[in-house]
Amino acid sequence: MNLTQGLYSSTIGKKILMAVTGIILFGFVVGHMLGNLQLYLGAEQLNAYADKLQSLGPLLWVIRAGLAFCVGVHVVAAVQLWLRNRASRPVRYRLFRPPEVDYAARTMMWSGPIILLFILYHLGHLTVGCLHHDFIRGDVYHNVVTTFRIWWVAGFYMLANLLLAVHLYHGLWSLFQTFGWDHPLFGRARRWIAIGFAVLIGAGNVSLPLAVLAGVVR
Ligand code: HEM
């Protein structure tokens, strides 16, 4: 077994893979949110931004393939770790079950699949347009605003983005642990950093459907 295979088959190797792919996906989520916030600057600005992204041409497809690869590795490693965890603990602990670790793991295992379903729906909805009732290719502002005028679609987006925030919170928290940044002195800071990022991203994303529903963005 070579070093790469050995590392991948170990529990810590899978955790490192989850952490590294998680950081890349986190970077995408932050960048995507900053791009989407240009909705507040008007149609011209948002559509020009979307145009610029499309003009990346083949590079855009390389980025898309890289992101899809990261999602795949992140999901496969998560499922493998979950199965390994279950197999090594057929009888659940009765006395010692750290509530924080247990809660984090449970939240990740249901928020993860829901976020994945949201992304598939979202791609069909705002990128391909086949799930949108009035899709105009190239007019991203129109596509987003007409989407969020429908209260239940706006509600679904808000729910998915709140779940994403919870997922990011636990993801960041576990990431610090994976990299060994879990010294008691750093414990509080670690929690507040994870909460801070999760709240900023959750608030930024949820504000968009809310702003359309409230008529702030028309
Ligand atoms: C309220 C929140 C969100 C809004 C308003 C939004 C809006 C959009 C829009 C308008 C597009 C199409 C862009 C274009 O065609 O140029 C898009 C694409 C995309 N979004 Fe979102 N998005 C949101 C949240 C998310 C979240 C939370 C994720 C992932 C966790 C996500 C992942 C993606 C992906 C992967 C694409 C495809 C990018 C591409 O390959 O071109 N989005 N989004």
String of helices and strands: HHHHHHHH
Would you identify the regions where 5 or more consecutive residues have pLDDT less than 50?
A: none
Q: Which of globular, elongated, flat, extended, rod-shaped describes the shape?
A: globular
Fourth-tier CATH superfamily name:
Fumarate reductase/succinate dehydrogenase, transmembrane subunit
The percent range for strand residues is under 5%
End-to-end separation in angstroms reads 59 Å
Descriptive terms for the model:
218 residues, mainly alpha, 3 helical TM bundles of succinate and fumarate reductases, 8 helices, globular, binds protoporphyrin IX containing FE
Task: Tell me what the structure shows.
With 218 residues, this protein is mainly alpha-helical. The protein has a single domain, classed as Up-down Bundle (3 helical TM bundles of succinate and fumarate reductases), CATH 1.20.1300.10. Helix content is 78%, strand content 0%. The protein is built from eight helices and no strands. α2 packs across α4 (58-87), α2 packs across α7 (151-178) and α5 (99-127) crosses α7. It is globular and about 55 Å long. 17% of the residues are buried. The mean pLDDT is 90. Bound molecules: protoporphyrin IX containing FE (HEM). The site of protoporphyrin IX containing FE has 21 residues, from α2, α3, α5, α6 and α7.
